[in-house]
């Protein structure tokens, strides 16, 4: 920067004045973001923490300090324990499947073939499918008697599955829907990563006579690891935040089998009016995401190979 | 040659499986109810194809109005994000003021706050501002997107510093430089963020569910929820017609903007 280049000999006061002016200008440009983040992100996260220690009326009016009571209730609540188990299972069902399938699609779509653009568009298409639309289609596919899935199973002589009403299948069904809906974005990011890998590396590997799999595991995956790492983080966080599919497909049921944490927060706060108790759950959600992300950066980062 | 056949087979098979739910939704929207009850994949004959579901759904619920609401809401958020995020990114990339790195770090750290963890106080804020059932309530909370600021800053940093120096010599002010040089040079990133912002807003579900309870500002996602609650037992062809109608705008935007999204988002992910 040019700052101060002509004023070297002038007294400190001018430099100080310039600093101040520069600071003012910088803050001026940041002002809209600072105000909005302040009102809709900083203030509410502290407010949520505050609420979690208070009893609140249904209208959100603070009635009295109760300390850790909400947290103590959560630990003892079998419903909340069930919700945490469902949340973790949901992450396990969705994240690995999402990444492996998206990687498979990205590897296919990275081949230089005629008409590949068409396939890339199809593979990315779920990014343009809203949660409500996608969930509505799957609600229909999972329908016990009209649904195509059960009709197809019948062709093979398998009895229909109660996809959404059986507590063993409901979470799997929601997970299938979620994996399908997240494939688009993961595919796009992974394909972008693959296209950034220099072709020369493969050419020299070809000269050495390396086969497809050895190229995949020795060149592609290591060089793709920063992108895989990025996709992993957004996939885990995305799974923890799932709401719309649950609301449309199962409403948290049957018997709480799909009542994963964000849905539980929504129910407690907006169906039962327990704002304080729901805030304590929201703080737990925040802590989980914080810990997962820090953990991934601390331990995942080391295994990541940067070009 | 064998490799090509294998690749095309895998490509076709994957595309078919992935696209099946969408194709089936289209097919079911043209079916007679009896074909749906029979579990057919396609309308049983050419003459049984019917468009009644589309006519019925637009008559039964104000679907066109919901689409307009979604379009307005998403456009407002998109424009708001582009303005707020690009101004912040400009400050972070081009104005070397004291404390800049600290503020940038705090902005980045906010990406760790799941939006759902703040939804209760945010709802109360909108309630106290009497912004329920308004476009302000639906859109204002999403203008300052830390991810968007980060994405644009990464791109702004690639613009050579010499450009600012020479513009300054010609008497160009900071704001003019932002408008005349930085924004036009960042079309790809701005388009990526714009498309991303539009699509994610269009897809919002929880927030509109909380802050709207009137048709006047109800977006399609919530309209669809109401339709399912009322009609799913009887008229699946109508529900699928509604699904197809609300999918067309976003799929079109995605297909047109895919190139920008890929270049813009991966640039942010890789250089991060």
Automatic annotation (TrEMBL), chain A:
Residues 84-296 form the ABC transmembrane type-1 domain. Belongs to the binding-protein-dependent transport system permease family. It comes from the Bacteria. The chain crosses the membrane at residues 21-46, 84-109, 121-142, 169-194, 223-243, 275-297. It holds the Pfam family BPD_transp_1. Keywords: Cell membrane, Membrane, Sugar transport, Transmembrane, Transmembrane helix, Transport. Its main location: membrane. The lineage of its organism: Bacteria, Bacillati, Bacillota, Bacilli, Bacillales. It is found in: Cell membrane. This is Multiple sugar transport system permease protein/sn-glycerol 3-phosphate transport system permease protein. InterPro entries: ABC_transporter_permease, MetI-like, MetI-like_sf. It is a multi-pass membrane protein.
UniProtKB/TrEMBL annotation, chain B:
Residues 67-257 form the ABC transmembrane type-1 domain. Pfam families: BPD_transp_1. Its main location: membrane. It is found in: Cell membrane. Keywords: Cell membrane, Membrane, Transmembrane, Transmembrane helix, Transport. InterPro entries: MetI-like, MetI-like_sf. The chain crosses the membrane at residues 63-95, 102-126, 138-156, 177-199, 236-258. It is a multi-pass membrane protein. CDD domains: TM_PBP2. Belongs to the binding-protein-dependent transport system permease family. This is Sn-glycerol 3-phosphate transport system permease protein. It comes from Virgibacillus natechei.
